[in-house]
């Protein structure tokens, strides 16, 4: 159980950091927010991978395709987050 939590944190940090590098513009986020972004991205990437390819965690948790899916999911989550943040700051 502890190994799973540590793996989630490490993969979340890597996926979140790479997503922040790939998405242009400022993202004022702490390291904890970056880890959470990566973990959310992992869930999004896993869900999209399951919808597209029909594979799940029983086929293997830590695979290169899963890491790439985590990064893609984190980019999607970051784009949504930046759009919500921009719309929240503008009042009409």
From TrEMBL:
The answer on whether this UniProt entry bears the keyword ATP-binding reads no
Location in the cell reads:
Cell membrane
Asked whether the UniProt record includes Repressor among its keywords, one would answer no
| Highest taxon, organism lineage | Bacteria
Q: Which residues cross the membrane?
A: 29-53, 65-84
Keyword tags: Cell membrane, Membrane, Transmembrane, Transmembrane helix
Annotated membrane topology is: Multi-pass membrane protein
Membership in a protein family: Belongs to the UPF0410 family.
Protein's recorded name: GlsB/YeaQ/YmgE family stress response membrane protein
Q: What organism, scientifically named, is this protein from? A: Spongisporangium articulatum
